[in-house]
Amino acid sequence: MLLEHRSQIRFCRACGSAVEHVVPADDNRARAVCPACGTIHYENPLNVVGTVPVWDDDQVLLCRRNIEPRKGLWTLPAGFLELGETTAEGAVRETIEEAGAEIDLGPLFTVLNVMRVGQVHLFYLATLRSTRFAPGPETIEAQLFREHEVPWDEIAFRTVRKTLQHFFADRRSGRFGVHGVHCDDIA
Ligand code: ZN
Q1: Interior CA angle at 179 toward 178 and 183, to 5°?
Q2: Is the preceding omega at residue 45 within 30 degrees of 0, hence cis?
Q3: What is the CATH number that goes with domain 46-185?
Q4: For residue 81, how far is its CA from the centre of ligand 1 (angstroms)?
Q5: CA-CA to 175 of 20 to 30 Å: which in 10, 40, 108, 114?
Q6: If you measure from the C-alpha of residue 117 to the centroid of ligand 1, how many angstroms do you get, rounded to a whole number?
Q7: CA of 20 relative to ligand 1 center, distance in Å
Q8: Where are the domains of the chain?
């Protein structure tokens, strides 16, 4: 999972000319507009999708990041949704890529708006089929944690911390819901 501000568009995607950042007619915010061919480049939030992989009802799988940002810190498996896949498919793919874990995907669990970096993070509950993990190159190690074992001071992202807090709170109450959160202080 990457959490970085996108750099401003400088050149037209259609013809390569330098764009201007102006408010198009009938619009209400500045866009990257090509003065040569008229193409307007709209930018919208990106979706990050991931899972809360659970083993034996009380243990959660975390991955220690092998890439920047936040290298060496722990995260839930998650990453950018690709074109041509559903949010559920993306969450499963990221779990396989980052943790090498086989899961049965459960319901949507958190929807976290990260306005500052223009992202929406979606985490699904998931049940691990086994404790055999084969982390990919983006992960140093994958490990199961009970609530008291979670390295709370070494969690890579605010959305992951929020999602874990909701998971253990819901587990205590015995009722799992969908949690929508505004997480603007993520980066
Ligand atoms: Zn152009």
Answers
A1: 150
A2: no
A3: 3.90.79.10
A4: 27
A5: 114
A6: 26
A7: 10
A8: 1-43, 46-185
The alpha carbon of 24 and the centre of ligand 1 are apart by a number of angstroms equal to 14
Q: Tell me which CATH code domain 1-43 carries.
A: 2.20.70.10
Q: How far is the CA of 184 from the centre of ligand 1 (A)?
A: 34
From first to last of the 187 residues of the chain, give the pLDDT tens digit: 555 667 789 999 999 999 999 999 999 999 999 999 999 999 999 999 999 999 999 999 999 999 999 999 999 999 999 999 999 999 999 999 999 999 999 999 999 999 989 999 999 999 999 999 999 999 999 999 999 999 999 999 999 999 999 999 999 999 999 998 776 644 4
- Is residue 127 within 8 A of residue 95, CB to CB? The reply is no
Residue 64, amino acid:
R
Residue closest to 122 by CA, chosen among 134, 136, 108: 108
Residue type, 34: C
